[in-house]
Design a protein that fits this description.
This protein has 7 helices and 7 strands, in the order ααβααββααββββα. Helix content is about 45%, strand content about 15%. Helix 2 runs antiparallel to helix 3, helix 3 packs across helix 4 and helix 6 packs across helix 7. Strands 4-5-3-6-7 form a 5-stranded mixed sheet, covered by helices on one side. The protein has a two-stranded parallel ribbon with strand order 1-2. With about 160 residues, it is α/β, with parallel strands linked by helices. The longest helix is centred in the N-terminal third of the chain and has 13 residues. The protein folds into 2 domains: about 70 residues, Arc Repressor Mutant, subunit A (Orthogonal Bundle), CATH 1.10.10.1590; about 80 residues, Glutaredoxin (3-Layer(aba) Sandwich). The two termini are about 30 Å apart. The chain binds FE2/S2 (inorganic) cluster.
Length: about 160
């Protein structure tokens, strides 16, 4: 099988990890760390490839990826929005921002938009509390406090269409 994310180098490393353990499931977490170190997050396709490579059911690996906050899971969507839900951002208005994001993208928190263009994820602190409520679109960081209206947000979202 052709792998897009599990390069030959990653395959070698994952194989070495796999060989260290008696039970192949123990290789899941270290392998996911490796993927995240390589790509900064964990694309859904990489999870599918890891499932094939380790011959472990996809649902088992997806369950681990979404359970641990330390993993940044990137669902298949053209644009992935990560909105911080921790206290400073909450106090800064992240709920209001979420409502606007949901309305303008058609996606709900934890889900895709019907056209598959957007995925909204609520995340823990992304280290940008000074600009609370902060959010990321793909790898671009935004200061939610500067968004005063739907029009402001629309202008940002239009860049990603
Ligand atoms: S609390 Fe939201 S970025 Fe830190």
């Amino acid at each position: 099988m052709e792998y897009k994310f599990l390069t030959k180098e990653l395959q070698e490393k994952i194989k070495a990890i796999r060989n260290k353990y008696l039970v192949k499931e123990q290789a899941i977490i270290p392998s996911l760390h490796l993927i995240q170190e390589t790509y900064r997050d964990i694309p859904q396709e990489a999870v599918e490839e890891l499932s094939k490579f380790l011959e472990i059911p996809l649902a088992d690996i997806e369950g681990i990826v979404s359970f641990y906050d330390m993993f940044r899971f990137r669902k298949n969507a053209k644009n992935h929005i990560r909105l911080c839900r921790n206290l400073p951002c909450h106090l800064g208005g992240s709920r209001k921002l979420l409502k606007m994001l949901e309305k303008l993208t058609g996606a709900e928190a934890g889900g895709h938009s019907p056209d598959g263009k957007w995925y909204i994820e609520l995340v823990e602190c992304i280290g940008s509390c000074a600009i609370a409520p902060s959010f990321l679109i793909n790898y671009d960081l935004y200061d939610g406090s500067k968004i005063k209206s739907e029009e402001d947000l629309k202008k940002i979202l239009e860049k990603y269409k």
